[in-house]
Amino acid sequence: MLQVAEAQRLVLERVQPLPPAVWSLGPEALGLVLAEDIAGDIDMPPFDKSLMDGYAVRSADMPEGKAVLDVIEEVTAGQTPQKKLGPGHATRIMTGAPLPEGADAVVMVERTRLVESTSPKREQGTRIAVDDKPPKPDQNILRRGREMRAGEVVLPAGSRLRPQELGILATVGRTQAHVIPRPCLAVLSTGDEIVEAAQTPGPGQIRNGNGPMLVGLAARAGARPTYLGNAKDRLDSLRPLVEKGLQHDVLVLTGGVSAGKLDLVPGVLADAGVEAVFHKVEMKPGKPVFFGYKELNVVGTLRVPSVSNGTLRVPSVSNGTRSVPTTLVFGLPGNPVSSLVCFELFVRPAIRASMGHSPGPHLVSAELAEDYPYRSDRVTYHPALLDSTGRTRKVRTTPWFGSADLRGINRANAFVILPPGDTIHRAGSWLDVLVVESEFDRGGVTAK
Ligand code: AMP
Ligand code: MG
Q1: Where a domain ends, among 293, 323, 354?
Q2: Nearest ligand for residue 260 CA
Q3: To bridge 432 with a disulfide, which of 16, 88, 106, 417 should be the other Cys (CB 3.0-4.6 Å)?
Q4: Closest-lying ligand 1 atom to the alpha carbon of residue 256
């Protein structure tokens, strides 16, 4: 049977970054990858500016750091100095204010004291005594263009947008930019026994936990998810919803991919023109997982997202072109934990790669905190708690009743990877861990 690493390779082989689109640079752009070089339109700072509240001085007036100076003007941020400093002069200056002509250093206000005041208006006619160390050249001054020069590339294409990048983009006057967009991802659950959360299950029925979970996983991975509803285990129910799902960059189904009498998903996907790449992977849970793709019939079909008034819009018809228009199709087993593990192992990397990121999955090595006897003929992704706060990363398994036990992974933040066999995994041994909660998790985005 296919091994996990090989299956991951087969998925990533089919993925390419989505074509760039113009996005507004609000919080919904966080985590996206820039698809153009960004150049500054101005020098930053645009003028020699003071970095302190204090006095602009001529260092020649105070070679030893001591002087008595006449204050000739006061400049606050946003104002322009009107007077040039001559010998024996100082200008009261605030942080962010432009430096007056003639000044080459700023002395902190804490290093000065007023020695004489002849006017009720505070600075006029004021003299100050400076008692500081000998001034260094450009002390407390940021010269024009020190941060960036007009025309200079400040963010190259490929930069990941973090809050600080949003700050730089705003600084150079950008409110929109070409980025690699988030993939549109459809979630379709299947099963005669499934009812939605608001309903009370009848005999033999269960509520749909996977739908909201997969929508959440997709959003956390960076995609823009749409929930298509639940298809019954009948061709006439599945087919139209699968067709709808194939209009997206990624279609994720849950349930109906195993070997049961009503596991119709692989057949329906084949009829809809989906090319199967694999069906079954050597792993526990999640063995029946299916992956395929469909190259769209109409070459050039593409739904390029756009943003207006801060809201993302995805047109229902094509408005662009793309070299290989493809929908990636994942059929995840219906058991909730299987769905989650398969999502993290196969779907998340595909989402990340389509956004121009390194795909992961996020694996780390950690020391087992307690002995754990375990037997399985397949590699097992066992729910676990990863603790990275100490000097060594520690992992312990969390109680778990198998692939249907979503409640059991409530306490987990990771899956420890247990190799096949019948063994006692010893405390202190090092094991690979699949991290499912990371610092790169993102918040939501409104899609229309
Ligand atoms: P299947 O993969 O369709 O054979 O389903 C395997 C198990 O997962 C069955 O016990 C299903 O009832 C359960 N299951 C399937 N879909 C869901 C879902 N959307 N939410 C919760 N459990 C599900
Ligand atoms: Mg089913």
Answers
A1: 354
A2: 1
A3: 417
A4: 3
